[in-house]
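TA notes. Do not distribute before section.
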Amino acid sequence: MVAYTAIMVSIVVPVHRAGQMWSNKLATATAMIFFSCAVGHGFHAVMGYRTLATFPGHHPHPGGLGWSWGSAIWDACTAAVGVYYWSLRRGYGVLLQKGAIYVDPWGQMRLEQADARERAARDLAEAHQATLATIVEDSADAIIGLTPDGTINAWNGGAERIFGYTAAEVLARPATVLADEVGAGQQADMLTRMRAGEGSFSYEGRRIRKDGRPIEVAFTVTPVTDAGGTVIGVSVIGRDVSAAKEAAERQRAVQERSDQAKRMESLGNLAGGVAHDFNNILAIIANYTDFVIDETRDRPDVQADLAHVRTAVERATSLTRQLLTFTRGDAIQLRDVDLNAAIAEVHAVLERTIGEHITLIAVPAPTPLTVHADPGQIHQILLNLAINARDAMPDGGTIVLEANVATLDGDELNMQPPLPAGTYARLLVSDTGEGMTAETAARIFEPFFTTKPRGSGTGLGLATVYGIVAESNGSINVYSELGVGTTFRIYLPIAATSRSTAVVHRSGSPPRGDGRTVLVVEDEVALARIITRILTGGGYHVRTAGNGAEALRTFHEYGCDLLLTDVIMPEMTGPKLAALILRERPDLPVLYMSGYSNGLLGTTHVLDDGIAFIEKPFTGDDLLHKVFATMPHDICHG
């Protein structure tokens, strides 16, 4: 009886505290059963006691019949409560299965709601994971997982697009498969920093695609740690920034060119103002000098002094004339000028005066080449540049005067001032002199800037050349290397009346490369990147090297179908590199490129006659046509 009462209390108390005495009918019915059982057991205990009292020696207890009826009636009530309880259980559909535990309907509803929420949360998490996996796989950026020792263990679609390797090709391989020697050093340093506990950081580096093409990649690396903080991996996000860096370099060059043009214009305005004012002063000095000369004819000593003054005035007048030419402030007389004839005339003048220690060579265009310009100014350009070249070769050397036709695509970065795309007549003056640094070359067209000793130059010669070229709607370009020499290129519009047939007209697009391999050797990284882009777009497979030693290693490892090499490079020249490679592969076609003219390189025996050569700057079509023409069409793909 006590046990039943305790069970009843354990049910009633929490249900009452929860306020479910009337709503939780099943719990109330259960409590009623245990209450009925407790009271029924009480009746049975009393009746048992009274039965014992009827044994021999005891007198029957009065009223025993009443207790029996009461117990029977209470047992009937207990049975009714039991029927009510089981009808509730069947109605609620709970606790009928084998091994079930009692749960009230309200609690069951809460469990079902919790299960529903858990299922919804699980479905949402699975959908989120699927979405995240799709985003990672389809990301344009490379997302790569590494072990602490640098082994690749995760590789997304972006990594495949950037580096060219599929996941099957790189998983379980070291990350150094993507790097050259410098890049491998960067990777080792990054892993060391990660293992040392350093947090996320970013850096940029050069990496190598599967096809051998170098790319610039910006990396963000983050350590992956376990619950204890131990580094168990590295997450790497890489973005190809090659195009962005090319665009930045181009923008920088364009800005520098714009700044240079503004600086030249500003200097020109200043010089022009000085020249005009100075001319007025010189006119006064010259005229009063003449007056005094007329009045002192009987004094030879004074006449001699005045003659020196007159000579100085004439020199000053010549200087102001150059200033006015530079600033486009002097009168010019335009007419059709044959550049071949101009070269011949200047060659005849210089040949008698330039000195026996200088070899002077003229290379005219194959056919007449006419421009609309002032003939005196054309002569002045050639004379100024040739005299500067002579001064750069005190111990002797070679000067080459050339004329030919060139096609520009309008994207050249080193033209002053810039020119639109088109075909132009071109004058070239090349020397084998001392050369210039990049800093000097950037300033040579500024008025009064000179590298000659004090008193040996006015600094107006090249400024005058620039002024003449700009006045003629042309442009000038300079290419120079210390200890090697300098080439000036002057581009001028071809006259409409020109009968020149030197222009090469190409029909259609350049032929495709069909996957043939070109080994590009160029020590100027930005130019190597541009050449690679042109050739890759033309259907060629490209491998690059920055110097002769690297080119030899690349050739031995991968081979090639054509060698495209710069002529002048530090440590090993292009012809020397070609000679070493041709010992092993005599039939390999070689195409040379240089910022120096072919005329200069040929006359100075840097290159042999008849070699394949393309002159910088060149257009993309120029390069593709030249590569196709140099490469035998029946060559086996390498």
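Switch to the second chain here.
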Amino acid sequence: MITKLLIANRGEIACRVIKTAKRMGIATVAVYSDADREALHVRMADEAVHIGPSPAKDSYLQINKIIAACKTTGAQAVHPGYGFLSENPKFAEALQAAGIIFVGPPVKAIEAMGDKITSKKLAAEAGVSTVPGHMGLIDDAEHAVTISKSVGYPVMIKASAGGGGKGMRIAWTDAEAREGFDRSKSEAASSFGDDRIFIEKFVTEPRHIEIQLIGDSHGNVLYLNERECSIQRRNQKVIEEAPSPFLDEATRKAMGEQSVALAKAVGYQSAGTVEFIVDKDKKFYFLEMNTRLQVEHPVTELITGLDLVELMLRAANGEKLPLQQADVQRNGWAIESRLYAEDPYRNFLPSTGRLTKYRPPVESVTGDLVVRNDTGVFEGGEISTFYDPMIAKLCTWAPTRGEAIDAMAVALDSFEVEGVGNNLPFLSTVMEQTRFREGRLTTGYIAEEFPEGFHGAELSEEHVFDIAAAAAMMMTRRVARNGDTATAHHWHVQLGEQALPVSISPDGDGFVVDAEWRSQAARLDWRPGSGLAHVDWSDGRRAVLKVNTTTSGFRIRYRGADLKVLVLAPHVAALLKHMPIKVPPDMSKFLLCPMPGQVVRIDVAEGDVVEDGQTLAIVEAMKMENVLKAEKKARISKVHAVAGEVLAVDQVILEFEAV
């Protein structure tokens, strides 16, 4: 058996692998860059080796440094995680040449499936349904237009060596095909060192459903059910679940068997995932095969009871799979929410900085509920510009889909993160949407449900009552602490544009809350200064609210809403209309950098007249190129930035004047 394992990765996946290795009695070795010197995975491992500067190309992508770390520490095997070198056949080959076990598939399988063009040809030969498209490489932007027209718009322009949403663009017109080709090619070169591009038909109303595989070196391959990964943003998965609410048994079986056939055709072993696009009629088409562990693997583990990392390690050790296809379970429902350091109110742009508060919900395992949090960060740690902005993967499991969603909503409410922008309010909002709860999903879900971007949740009447009542109870407790001995209080609660009179009276160890349309008893678990308020209602409901105390009330975050809530005595509230309102400055004449990042290029010069929709600049952040375009016709009066410059969020790039 492998006795010492090096994890050639960082962050939450490195921590995830370390946990299983330790449970199996395997010693672990972490590698780290300058930026990760104090990282959680370094603290968790038995040993740690420094492998270079912060940029991944100088550290985590350096094959020779990984092999040197193995030799220095005596590590017999390497688990690559996902990303970085995980699907690089040269890495697997170099490990093999050095006599080090690669915890993954054979080199030939990585080569065959890692190239999207080759993999589609092999899939077709193995009898797997594939998407129409051009399987050859695209020479230039004009060639991309020609191919796009022949395939028929809309098309997907993709990097052959791509993954994680990088190097992918959807084009509906010739102009978008040209720009999509240029951007995909550039992103592919910087992210994968391979700028080859191909084009395929974009399926409308698509679902993204994938099949998890596990294989051993004895020719056995099993499919471990499916995952629904349709809720995506910029081709990056955000919420996943297992099983899919859409598939029937016949479709599930057909997808699983075709996936196994493809894997066996290339001599596959270890964990792998075959990704499909599924249309509204349950017709499915092969997209690609990921020859590694997927980010979203926890939901499969939760419904099958299997540890995929353990199965990978045992397969790498030459063991046979401990089960057959008939033994694979599908028990209950699991949901995963990816918590990213990105600002949903600013079009999900990356955010960086120090985590001044990081307090996830308590992980638990009971017969009817599981809460799991896979993470690689800690309170006081830093989210840097060098790597993926993921903070954590929060998972819940319950016997039914509805119960799993309810559990996720509460877990998200209980997750405290401060210091960086994050997508917690967005994730909470999705959990409350009727369309999501009904399982009516497509890969266009976010664009369709939030066409004008995310601006916070629209609260139901019940949630408005929850917030107003909690705020009134907390204020009652605040004034009591300051010496107010009144037994009952009457408050004016202002939530944005809504104003509610709320009365609070004692009721044993709790309160009775009276609002305009509702009266109910509740118990409040909160003390002044606490970050979370727990409210247990007499009807059995429970609300968890994130709370920050302000001068005359609270900042409350609940179910996707982020509200400044004023709690005032009625006579004070009557004076509100006389208070001046501060008007924010007009910034419309400036192009501001929307996120911390590096300027790739500036496409205009001082004196140029630009039109609505014209590209002004490109800024790269977290290895993604963000195209900044003009919102109206204007003249460039001043250029404040240059290509190569690293900018902070809201730093001025260009200045406009009217024409």
